[in-house]
Design brief:
Blueprint lengths: L1 H16 L4 H11 L4 E8 L3 E9 L2 E10 L1 H4 L3 E11 L2 E10 L4 E11 H7 L7 E14 L10 E13 L2 E13 L2 E8 L5 E10 L2 E10 L2 H9 L5 E7 L5
Antiparallel strand pairs: 1-2, 2-3, 3-4, 4-5, 5-6, 6-7, 7-8, 8-9, 9-10, 10-11, 11-12, 12-13
């Protein structure tokens, strides 16, 4: 019964304000965020539209387009297809939804994020690494509406494309990870053009992510890099999950 009431309320809201211009809503959102959000160009309605030249604290976006999904409404979820264009090299597309039980989902996530962009918003050293993260058909669920906790479910496939370490081209690598019911399993493997033979397994033990396996230089450049940086072929890396929250 709760689900059907939720669908009715969503449908009522949709048909009541389906043509409401987004310009009516945006000042309220900006006010709630204490002026941290800046939008220079806004078009469409709250159900379908586009915002351009957006700034939110350190984050900048060239455009964000949204389109309401009527199909998800019939399943009891309020959902929008989002196309987030950060700049000419970085873009994400996915379906974002929230259901009657307050679970947030980001589904069919695809796109490209460049390490160069991540350096702008993190402390990654400029000289250390460069790559493109090509994301395909990934899904993330949160049970926390404020997204303050780690996801409850994650299924992702990422190609680390054009990996460059300290000025040396390393090729492409595949990362596949699934996290559910506090259990994480994943693999990291090299693609055909890679110069590092990579066979790594990712798992979760209590609060620690374990990355184990072997990496081995295929050509002379990779072998020289391993030797100069004193990198062992046997990998046993531990990352404390609580440090990522």
């Amino acid at each position: 019964m709760k689900k059907y009431i939720f669908i009715f309320l969503l449908a009522f809201i949709f048909f009541a304000v389906k043509s409401l211009p987004i310009n009516v809503i945006s000042p309220l959102v900006v006010e709630k965020l204490d002026g941290k959000l800046k939008i220079n160009n806004l078009n469409g309605t709250i159900w379908k539209g586009e915002a351009r030249n957006i700034e939110f604290e350190k984050l900048k976006f060239e455009s964000i387009a949204w389109d309401f999904s009527i199909n998800e409404l019939l399943q009891g979820r309020l959902a929008f297809a989002l196309d987030i264009k950060i700049d000419s090299s970085n873009e994400l597309r996915f379906l974002i939804s929230v259901g009657a039980f307050k679970q947030i989902r980001a589904e069919n996530l695809k796109g490209v994020i460049n390490v160069g962009y991540l350096k702008q918003i993190t402390k990654i050293p400029n000289y250390l690494v460069d790559a493109n993260f090509v994301i395909d058909n990934s899904h993330i669920y949160w049970d926390d509406l404020l997204l303050q906790e780690l996801p409850s479910y994650l299924d992702t496939n990422i190609v680390v494309e054009k990996l460059n370490l300290i000025g040396k081209e390393m090729g492409d690598y595949q990362l596949a990870v699934k996290y559910q019911d506090d259990k994480l399993q994943g693999d990291i493997n090299n693609k055909k053009n890679a110069i590092i033979d990579t066979k790594l397994n990712v798992s979760l033990n209590d609060d620690v992510i374990n990355i184990k396996g072997k990496i081995k230089g295929i050509n002379e450049d990779a072998k020289s890099l391993f030797e100069n940086l004193n990198i062992s072929e046997n990998v046993n890396l531990k990352i404390k999950l609580s440090n990522l929250k």
